[in-house]
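=== RUN LOG ===
request id: a7f3
mode: sequence -> structure
chains: 1
length: 131
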Amino acid sequence: MEKEIIETVLTEMLGELQQIKKLSTDNTNVAIENANRLIAIEKKMQSAQATKPEINTQSIEHLIYSGLQRIKETIDKKPTPVKREFRILLFPTYNEKEYYRIVFGRIIAWLVLLVIVKYLYLLGSAWIAAH
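=== RESULT ===
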């Protein structure tokens, strides 16, 4: 009985060892294929670097330099003094349409209110005089 048990255990171990050997050879083959692919990629990269043309950056450098010069000139200018002006604008220089809409809308509203108040005052004074 012990002999049968030992035989079954050994056959199972033999089967597992054969599977491990097969997986190991498969892994080795995949590693070799990956190494070959990596070598091909490295060769392509080297050939691409060898044929890469040089980029002409003089125009970009000129633009950057001229921009920096304008910034430097702006900084070097003395600041202009602030002029305080107090004006009454009857005729605005900007946004005339909105200005007239606001101003004349308010003027008409105030005139209507003034007329209403005046007539209420006249009615009130007439009523007080009558009583």
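=== NOTES ===
The chain has a mean pLDDT of 88.
Helices lie at 2-50, 58-76, 96-130.
=== END ===
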